[in-house]
């Protein structure tokens, strides 16, 4: 079984159901090589999330030999013109990864969230961006922001649209699970099939699932 990389998951520090330790156990079961814990954040809880994730990683990550664990946040439903400021703040207090909750059609995300996210120098991933414009995809490429194809049912309805524009414009894609409970974990084989269902070719999927995660890890580690 091939290794899986997943940079968008949630614990009970926001609206997930698992502790970080439980999250890692399920990730190992699904043959993960790397996982990011990226709980939903706004200014009410950003310090709480990052402080506790960093504490978890400091004390427990040394016991997990075969999986890399990254502390992050998902900036969620905040006023769009606060995204850059909040992303910078998150990085300054220790977040390795900043995800922005994109304009999925399944939630009332503020209009222009995608626009402001891809113009930030501190955002790493734009998650489930819904009916994203080609202009915003092109801007994400300029800022080296990765575009997410999601395996989460409620957000995956626009995967085909996102994949088509991302591939057309050579945007970097990651396939993430947006885990909230154990049933959301997605091994390599299932993620590959969802990628195919999004209209991505097998050749592109191999690069997306095996090369892009390594490039992303190098980026966030400043290698």
Question: Can you offer a commentary on this structure?
Answer:
- The chain is an alpha/beta fold.
- The chain is 39% helix and 17% strand.
- The protein has helices at 20-29, 46-60, 83-92, 113-117, 134-142, 159-168, 188-197, 202-220; strands at 4-6, 32-41, 68-75, 97-101, 125-127, 146-150, 173-176.
- A 7-stranded parallel sheet has the order 1-2-3-4-5-6-7.
- Helix 7 (188-197) packs across helix 8 (202-220).
- The model has no long low-confidence stretch (mean pLDDT 97).
Read across the widest sheet, the strand sequence of neighbours is: 1-2-3-4-5-6-7
SS class? alpha/beta
The run of helices and strands is EHEHEHEHEHEHEHH
Assess the beta-strand content as a share of residues: 15-25%
Helix share, percent: 25-40%
pLDDT < 50 runs, ≥5 residues: none
**Alpha-carbon distance between the two ends:** 28 Å
Question: What characterizes the major β-sheet?
Answer: 7 strands, parallel
- Bulk shape: globular
Number of helices: 8
């Amino acid at each position: 079984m091939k290794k899986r990389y997943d940079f968008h998951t949630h614990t009970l520090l926001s609206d997930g159901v698992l502790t970080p330790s439980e999250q890692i156990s399920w990730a190992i079961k699904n043959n993960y090589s790397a996982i990011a814990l990226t709980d939903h954040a706004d200014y009410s809880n950003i310090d709480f999330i990052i402080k506790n994730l960093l504490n978890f990683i400091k004390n427990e990550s040394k016991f997990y030999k075969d999986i890399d664990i990254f502390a992050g946040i998902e900036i969620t439903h905040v006023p769009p013109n606060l995204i850059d400021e909040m992303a910078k703040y998150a990085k300054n207090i220790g977040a390795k990864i900043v995800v922005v909750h994109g304009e999925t059609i399944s939630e009332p995300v503020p209009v222009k969230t995608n626009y402001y996210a891809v113009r930030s120098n501190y955002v790493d991933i734009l998650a489930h961006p819904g009916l994203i414009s080609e202009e915003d995809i092109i801007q994400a490429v300029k800022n080296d922001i990765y575009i997410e194809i999601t395996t989460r049912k409620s957000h995956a309805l626009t995967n085909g649209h996102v994949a088509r524009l991302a591939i057309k414009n050579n945007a970097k894609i990651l396939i993430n699970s947006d885990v909230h409970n154990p049933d959301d974990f997605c091994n390599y084989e299932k993620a590959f099939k969802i990628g195919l269902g999004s209209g991505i070719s097998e050749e592109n999927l191999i690069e997306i699932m095996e090369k892009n995660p390594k490039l992303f890890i190098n980026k966030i580690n400043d290698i």
